[in-house]
Amino acid sequence: MVTSHSFLMPPQDVHNQALVDHVHPPDWVNPKPAAEYDLVVIGAGTAGLVAAAGAAGLDIGLKVALVERHLMGGDCLNVGCVPSKCLIRSGRAAADMLNPGPLGVEPVDRANVNFPKVMERMREVRAGISHHDSAQRFSKIGVDVFLGGGKFIDGNTIGVGDNKLRFKKAVIATGARATRPPVEGIEEVGFLTNETVFSLTERPERLAVIGAGPIGCELAQAFQRLGSNVTLLHRRPYILNKEDPDAAVLVQKSLEEDGVNLVTGMTLRRAYRSDGGKVLEFTNSEGQVESIEVDEILMGAGRSPNVEGLNLEAVGVQYNKRGVVVDDYLQTTNKRIFAAGDICMAWQFTHAADAAARIVLKNAFFSPFGLGKSKLSDLVMPWVTFTDPEIARTGLSEEEAQAKGFDTTTIKIDMSGVDRALADGETDGFLKVIHKRGSDEILGATMVSRHAGETISELTTAIVNKIGLSAMSSVIHPYPTQADCVKRAADAYRRTLLKPSTKKLLGILTKLS
């Protein structure tokens, strides 16, 4: 039995101590390994936790081991979804007070944002959630939890310190980490990533955020609203370049209205220290060299898979710069070893990792002779960029649908025509529903609104269950809600069915009734 090393999470307060006690308890003693495990999972982020809990929770006698070298809960709990959404919520409250718009409420002073309290609340919420992912909980449901670095020794053995875990099947779920930027001088100057930014206790007065993808945009807006002067630097000519261009324009407008200094089309040259702080030098979109001086630099772009130290070569598992290579069934090049989550998938979301882990369990244990296996490509994947307004997507975009050979039609409903959005003063946004031309089959949807993430699941449900727009038009939506835009889109489709011949038939029916 090997006792794990203690782990410190800065700042060292009661909340972070509670967190660590759950997800990397300092007094944890690794159990004596079983003679053989049906499943050994390396990595206790979302994919690993779901795979381990799913296998053990079936209560059919499967022996399951879970290995984690760092913090159980992975990025989502510790340095991703949970802490970032806490900051975003505080930033939204600050924005509502600082700029209440046309609601008849007088704005308050920016100085009223108590940044240390914001960060303390985040740590408290994170600690309060952490018991769900704790070593103690997983041990109680029948999972042998081993804290320490895991690596493959041979085709049926994983080593964790002095322990050797023999397995029938294994899952690699080691996730990914923030990429170190190839910028001259950046290591010497120092920078923050999502792995360190949530340890701040003092607000950076001047913050540079590099990368205007989802992470960069979310945190740039949040810190600007919490009182930092934020400059957001992006190498592309426009932000959120993987999203619907119309949606990205609305988010960019919101960022600029919040006061974010947005620099697009730039190329970073170098970083260096000055008497006043940290300096980033870059070439702007017109080829001119500029620089900005800030107190902190936050890297919000790029992820690298955690493949180091796993000894994948020993078991014939192929990998590349994008991560572990898997097929559509999430099997690696070693058919006894699967992978799930950020280590192997382009969809780097918590809910995608959860769904992938369920596919792994199905294919590993409940598809005899390969029958009935589930495919990753069959998933209808929603995702949300949690800016204000939010961008939510599900299914196929217009470009993706057309690339697959679909002849499409798009219905667009502006939030300015939705009564509840008018009442809320939240009219910047829209819903686009992409459907097959001449059919009510929904292929995908994009929504921009303050609550888009809460609305998009209705459309995901419709796509998964093949519920067409005609059927959705008969669904009663409570009035007034912003989700009424879905009903309006469905009604808009129904109106396209009113062709002259249809109208003539309806006229006859009225005379006969």
Describe the structure.
The chain is α/β, with parallel strands linked by helices. It has 16 helices and 23 strands. Strands 1, 2, 3, 4, 5, 6 and 18 form a seven-stranded mixed β-sheet that branches. Strands 19-20-23-22-21 form a five-stranded antiparallel β-sheet, with helices on both faces. Strands 10-9-8-14 form a four-stranded parallel β-sheet, with helices on one face. Strand 19 and strand 20 form a beta hairpin. Helix 1 packs parallel to helix 5, helix 2 runs parallel beside helix 10 and helix 4 packs across helix 8. The protein is globular.
What structural class do helix, strand and pairing data support? alpha/beta
Tell me the radius of gyration.
25 Å
Count of DSSP-assigned helices: 16
The total beta strand count reads 23
User: What are the low-pLDDT stretches, counting only 5+ consecutive residues below 50?
Assistant: none
User: Helix fraction?
Assistant: 25-40%
- State which percent range the strand residues make up: 15-25%
Describe this structure in a few short sentences:
This protein has helices spanning 14-23, 46-57, 74-79, 81-98, 115-129, 135-140, 186-189, 214-225, 245-258, 350-365, 398-403, 419-424, 452-464, 469-472, 484-496, 500-512, and strands at 37-42, 64-68, 143-147, 150-154, 157-160, 163-172, 176-178, 206-210, 229-233, 261-263, 267-274, 277-283, 289-294, 296-299, 303-305, 319-320, 323-324, 337-339, 383-385, 390-395, 408-414, 430-436, 442-449. With 513 residues, the chain is an alpha/beta fold.
Key terms:
513 residues; alpha/beta; seven-stranded mixed β-sheet; five-stranded antiparallel β-sheet; 16 helices; 23 strands; globular
